[in-house]
Amino acid sequence: MSEHRILLSFLILIFLLVSCGKEEVKKVSEESGIAQEAFKLAEVVRNAYVKNDRAILEKNSTKDGYRELSGAIKSFESADLTFTPKWVEIEDSTVYLHISWGGTWIVSGKKTEDRGLAIFVLEGKPLKLAKVLRENPFSQPE
């Protein structure tokens, strides 16, 4: 009788392992996909700014967004900028990406540090930077 219990327990264990071993693939929600795209865009824009690559900034901004962005950028010898996404709001076709940022700039040999909170207004498909609200990290150092 104990052999039957061991065999039954073993079969149940194998059944549980086989049935629990399959990972269910969850589909990414539309909002999650948009948020991920917004995070990637912010990183592309940050890298382009640090490298002073105006072509990539223009490619990833709307026409008006690039005009505003290029007008805000001050010259620097080097920059180190970090972004920490905090919140994403999606209203119709506009995405508001709230970002906490910190940066260090070298201008004429002088080091300047600053930090703040910006809201990137993103529009279009694919998303492009249309405007920066609040504390613009690209207008530093002031």
What does this structure look like?
- The chain is an alpha+beta fold and 142 residues long.
- The chain has one domain (30-139): Nuclear Transport Factor 2, Chain: A, CATH 3.10.450.
- 39% of the residues lie in helices and 35% in strands.
- It is built from four helices and four strands, in the order ααααββββ.
- The protein starts with a helix and ends in an 8-residue tail after the last strand.
| Structural class label | alpha+beta
Gyration radius, rounded: 24 Å
Structural domain tally: 1
Strand order in the largest sheet: 1-2-3-4
Mean pLDDT: 88
Ranges with pLDDT <50 over ≥5 residues? none
What characterizes the major β-sheet?
A: 4 strands, antiparallel
List key phrases describing it.
alpha+beta, 4 helices, Nuclear Transport Factor 2, Chain: A, about 140 residues
Concise account of the structure shown:
The protein is 39% helix and 35% strand.
Tell me the layout of helices and strands:
Blueprint: H1 2-20, H2 30-50, H3 54-59, H4 63-72, E1 78-91, E2 94-107, E3 110-123, E4 128-134
Antiparallel strand pairs: 1-2, 2-3, 3-4
